[in-house]
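Could you help me review a protein record that somebody else here produced? What it holds is a sequence and that sequence's fold in token form. I have pasted the whole thing underneath without changing anything:
=====
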Amino acid sequence: MHPNPAFRPDEAGLLDRAAGFAHLFVATPVGPLVAHAPLTRHGEELWLHLARANRLFPHLAGATVLASVAGPDGYLTPNWFARADDQVPTWNYTAIEIEGMVRPLSRDDLLTQLDTLAERHEPNPNPWTRAKTDPAKIDAMLRAIGGFAITVTGLRGTDKLAQHKSAADRAGMIAGLRALADAMERA
């Protein structure tokens, strides 16, 4: 995480924000491994699922994990600042790091995690639910994945959003990013 304390968000909402798409890092006997998995919050834990064929899968139960969830980010050119001649390029971003111990989930908890993902991400008015899929197909797919819970032991966040810059610099960055978004809409 960024060392500047000005970029530390309020810890009160960090666990909710940590429910996202994470990079999971684990030191294993075969070396450091990383996997990518969706996290959902369940009480004070974060739950995930992973394909059994993933090479990290056999190392997760009982492991200490470092999970990283990245939020929006973007490059900022000095040309957007009030004075470009005394600045360097920088990057604004939001990110959360989660440390914790991993334990396997039961089949019922894995189903809860999958249902929670669907509830959170399915578009309305016609969201997908397990009821729309043949139960035999669900069972077959469940055999290919496993669920895990992260008992959170550490949680850190960074919201590096130019808080330390002047109002003029921030206005220039916002205008520059807005111009980029407008160009994307026209393309």
